[in-house]
C-alpha cells in the first residue's frame, strides 16, 4: 500500500459518521499490524481528540490480534518453552515488550545458579542453591502486600520489581531449572501454585513454595491445605502439570484480578486468550 493511500485513509478517521468510521476501520485493519507505525505517527501529529481515540482503538485491536495469533502458535508449536508463554501474556499489557530483555535476564540468572552447582549435589542441595541465588542474591520474593495486583502476573514487571505471585515466580524458577535440566515442575494446586521435584514422571520427592522463598514441604502439607479449602484430593493436585496449564493459571489469575478491579474490557479480552488454551 502506497504512503499517500495510507495517509488518506487515516485522515478520514475523524469522520463523525460512525458507519463511515466502521468501514474505514475495517479497511485499515485488513492491512495488518504493519500499519501501526503510520497510526502512531497520526496520533502523535494530530490534535483531534476523536481521531486519536479511534487510532488507539484500532492499534489495540491490531496488537490484540497479534497476541492471539502468537498464543495459538505457542500452544501448537512451542509450548515446551514456558518463558515464551509468559512473555506473550505480558505483551497483552506491554505490546512493545522486547522478549530479549527477559530471555537475557533469565540466561544471566541461570549462569549464576550454574556456577554454584555440581554433579555431586543431592536434590535438596540443588534446591538450596536455586533458592539462594534466586531469592537471596537476585532478591525475588512474593508480593504479600499486594498479591492481587495485575502487575504481579506480567513477567517483565516481576523481573524489574523482584516481586511476583506464585505463578510468575514459578515461571522464573522453572525457566532456570529447564535450562539446567533440573527436574522441577509446576504443580497445579487449587488457590495456589507450587513446584515439585520429580526425578521420575509423577513421582514427586518433595514440593516447593516459591511464594515463600522456595520453602520445602511434603504431600501431607498439600493434604492439609486441601482440607482447609474443603477440596477433595485429586491426583492432578500432586503431580507435575504441563506448561499450557501453567500459562492458563496465569491468565485465569489476570481475569480474576481485572474483574475485581472493575475492568470488564480487560477481563473479557483475557478470557478470550484463556479460551485459546482451553480449547
TrEMBL record:
Top-level lineage group: Bacteria
Pfam family, one: Transglut_core2
Coiled-coil segments on the chain, per record: none
InterPro entries named in the record: SirB1_N (IPR032698)
Annotated ranges, domain Protein SirB1 N-terminal: 102-251
Family according to the record: Belongs to the UPF0162 family.
Name the record gives this protein: Protein SirB1 N-terminal domain-containing protein
Organism name: Vicingus serpentipes
Higher taxonomy: Bacteria, Pseudomonadati, Bacteroidota, Flavobacteriia, Flavobacteriales
Amino acid at each position: 500500500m502506497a504512503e499517500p493511500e495510507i495517509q488518506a485513509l487515516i485522515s478520514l478517521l475523524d469522520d463523525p459518521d460512525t458507519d463511515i468510521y466502521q468501514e474505514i476501520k475495517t479497511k485499515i485493519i485488513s492491512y495488518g499490524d504493519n500499519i501501526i507505525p503510520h497510526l502512531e505517527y497520526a496520533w502523535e501529529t494530530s490534535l483531534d481528540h476523536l481521531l486519536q481515540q479511534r487510532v488507539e482503538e484500532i492499534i489495540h485491536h491490531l496488537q490484540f490480534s497479534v497476541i492471539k495469533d502468537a498464543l495459538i502458535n505457542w500452544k501448537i508449536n512451542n509450548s515446551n518453552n514456558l518463558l515464551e508463554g509468559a512473555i506473550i501474556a505480558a505483551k497483552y499489557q506491554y505490546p512493545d515488550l522486547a522478549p530479549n530483555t527477559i530471555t537475557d535476564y533469565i540466561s544471566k540468572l541461570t549462569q549464576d545458579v550454574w556456577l554454584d552447582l555440581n554433579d555431586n549435589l543431592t536434590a535438596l542441595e540443588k534446591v538450596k542453591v536455586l533458592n539462594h541465588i534466586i531469592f537471596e542474591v537476585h532478591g525475588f520474593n512474593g508480593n504479600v502486600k499486594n498479591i492481587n495486583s495485575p502487575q504481579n502476573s506480567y513477567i517483565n514487571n516481576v523481573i524489574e520489581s523482584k516481586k511476583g505471585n506464585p505463578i510468575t515466580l514459578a515461571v522464573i524458577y522453572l525457566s532456570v531449572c529447564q535450562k539446567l535440566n533440573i527436574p522441577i515442575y509446576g504443580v497445579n494446586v487449587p488457590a495456589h501454585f507450587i513446584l515439585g521435584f520429580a526425578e521420575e514422571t509423577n513421582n514427586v520427592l518433595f514440593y516447593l513454595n516459591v511464594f515463600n522463598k522456595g520453602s520445602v514441604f511434603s504431600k501431607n502439607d498439600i493434604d492439609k491445605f486441601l482440607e482447609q479449602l474443603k477440596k477433595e484430593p485429586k491426583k492432578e493436585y500432586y503431580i507435575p502439570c504441563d506448561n499450557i496449564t501453567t500459562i492458563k493459571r496465569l491468565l485465569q489469575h489476570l481475569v480474576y484480578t481485572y474483574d475485581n478491579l472493575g475492568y470488564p474490557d480487560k477481563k473479557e479480552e483475557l478470557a478470550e486468550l484463556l479460551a485459546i488454551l482451553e480449547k
